Amino acid sequence: MMGNTATDAIRRELARGESLRAAELGTDALGDDVTSADVELIWLTALALARSGAVERAERLAGLPGLDARLSNEPARLRSDMTALRARLIKDRALVADDEAAPGLALRAAEAYAACAEEFGGYYALINAATMFLFAGDGARSEHAAREVLSLTDSLPSPLDYWAQVSKAEAHLLLRDVAGVAQSLREAEETDPGWGMRSTTRKQLQRICEVLGIGVDVLAALRSKRVVHYTGHMFASGPEEHIAEQIRDLLRELDVGAVYGSLACGADLLMAETALALGVEVHAFLPCPVDEFLTQSVIGGGEEWTRRFASVRERAQTVQVEPTRAVPDEVMFAYCDELAMGHAKLRANRLGCEMTQIAMWDGVPSTGLAGTGAAVRRWRGLGGKTEVVPLDRSRFVRAAAADRPEPTDSPTRTRQVRGIVFLDVKGFSQLQEDQLPAFFELVMGALAKVIAGYDSVTYRNTWGDALYLVFATPLSAAQCALAIQRRMATLAEELGWPGLTARIGGHAGPVYDGFDPVCDEPTHYGTHVTRAARIEPRTPPGQVYITSDFAALLALDPECRLRAEYVGRIPTAKAYGAFPMYVLGG
Question: Exposure string (b/e) for 387-406, b if CB count within 10 Å is 16 or more?
Fold first, then answer.
């Protein structure tokens, strides 16, 4: 087994709840020759993928040809871990299945866990078997397994580690022993687990509470950290320590694990610095390239802020930089805020923890698209809660205004956030000449009817077997893309073309609403259109791949009921770059 930097780094990211980052590290370390890679690295990467929701990719890794033969030469612990992971992947399928399929899958998972426990012993697989028997509707086997878990953990030497304690808590919960749950969780807290582990545990126990009809207050001893989106006014100088003290108190009071926002001079950087000093993760988003951002949002505060920006940028967990210029479009700053909110929401959803906004704000509403007041309005409009750190801007020296070009009313210079979809039909180039009329009449005609059902389409184009669609909202783009894939599946059966499938790539971002003088019609163009076009060729036939930014914006939409499963950092066509991708599901 490896005890190298790759496996150590993956374990650290998993402990922090950063399963996406852990999956990326594992995928990079595995490289192209996966079949000969270190077995522990395969297991850890598959585990990271499973925790990030990439069940299909995890299943492929855990089921690699020849892996069982290689596992036979590994220590029992690793063989047990891989066996339990395979059971866990069945469990993951069960937890998202419909009401008809879920009990059967839950029973399969329970029996797989039970077999793992019988072969290798230990409480971990057994407690999962107990829970899945409950979800399968077999209360008697659930309670029997839970009592076995308590017997096993009671025989372990004290003090118990985190996993043993939370397994005891889960067993007590399955037996409806509320006092036992609270005691075990208090002892688990004393082991000081990583906040990602704690959040994952709480999410699992909450699901059991729902099934048993037990209030989640029984889990109060297991603290759950929050994810925060932050926003605030720019300033050059003022009573910083007073504001920093309020930020410190609030981050501690809310028990924050990660903050998401930008890095402008004044409130943004003060939040980021304070969070880093407390050991809180910082994930930053810039609405434009670094040089422009410095000019627009940092340098005006003075030279010291430029130094502080560089320091925070170096220490932040992630910094996502928009590649296109922001000026003169206010929409780019609003888009940046929405990405920060959306990625924070994705993280909170993944960990099953709460999300809050912290605004360092003077309380003055904003009517514009961007700025602190606009960010507060946007978050509250989504039903979110905002904690306000009062900021009296009369006590601060304002940052010098950047030299911004005047906005223009020209439609060719205005960007709007749009949902963008590109589609390509697999096998079109193999059709014979006499098959083309049927293809355009039957296949493209059927897809046209699907698209016609969406009033939010702002642009459509086709060439050969390809489609390019633009939608007013990311959600409508996602819904239409899935509807097209469903129609393609039925068309293949109706027409007797078993190989008829489509690749669909999607992205959401600011694009220009312009006019095409050649075609004499409205059109859309810009860097984000190009990014969407580069995704489709890398999408497996029959699926819809979307960028992480698209997934983040969907996470913000209260009407969205779609699932986005992480698939990894995927290189795009024509060497356009590698981006984190999700596969979209209904």
Answer: eebebeeeebebbeeeeeee
CB atoms within 10 A of CB 156: 12
**pLDDT per position as a tens digit, 208-227:** 999 999 999 999 888 778 99
What's the pLDDT tens digit per position in 420-467?
Answer: 999 998 867 666 787 778 788 888 899 999 999 999 999 999 887 889
- Please check the confidence at residue 408 and state whether its pLDDT lies above 50: no
Q: Are residues 167 and 254 in the same domain?
A: no
The CATH code of the domain that includes 316 is 3.40.50.450
The DSSP output letter for 294 is H
- Report how far apart, in Å, the C-alpha atoms of 303 and of each of 205, 284, 295 are: 50, 21, 11
Helices 162-174, 139-154: inter-axial angle, 10-degree rounding: 140
Is the pTM here over 0.70, yes or no?
Answer: yes
C-alpha 257/C-alpha 105 separation (Å) is: 34
Residues 18, 143, single domain; the answer is yes
Let me know whether 185 and 281 are in one domain: no
Residues 6+ apart with CB under 8 A from 521: 515
Higher pLDDT, residue 17 or 557: 557
Q: Which residues contact 126 (CB under 8 A, 6 or more apart)?
A: 113, 114, 117, 145, 148, 149, 152
Q: What is the SS3 assignment for 269? A: helix
CA distances, 578 to each of 289, 392, 531, 535 (Å): 18, 43, 10, 10
CATH code of the domain covering residue 110? 1.25.40.10
Burial class (CB in 10 A: 0-12, 13-18, 19+), 383: exposed
Tell me the residue range of the domain where 182 lies: 5-219
Average pLDDT, the chain: 90
Nearest residue to 170 via CA among 196, 193, 154, 146: 146
Whether a cis peptide bond, with omega within 30° of 0, leads into 328 is yes
User: What torsion, rounded to 10 degrees, do the Cα atoms 345, 350, 355, 360 define?
Assistant: -60
| Co-location of 162 and 278 in the same domain | no
CA atoms of 148 and 570, how far apart (whole Å): 44
Q: 523: which 2 tokens?
A: 């059109």
Contact 164, 145 (CB under 8 A): no
E strands of 204-280, at which residues? 226-232, 256-261
Is there a domain that residue 400 lies in?
Answer: no
In a shared domain, residues 155 and 123: yes
Q: Is residue 166 part of a domain?
A: yes
Contacts of 453 (CB under 8 A, 6+ apart): 480, 483
Pair (482, 435) in one structural domain: yes
Q: Does residue 473 fall inside a structural domain?
A: yes
Rounded Cα distance between 225 and 243, Å, is: 22
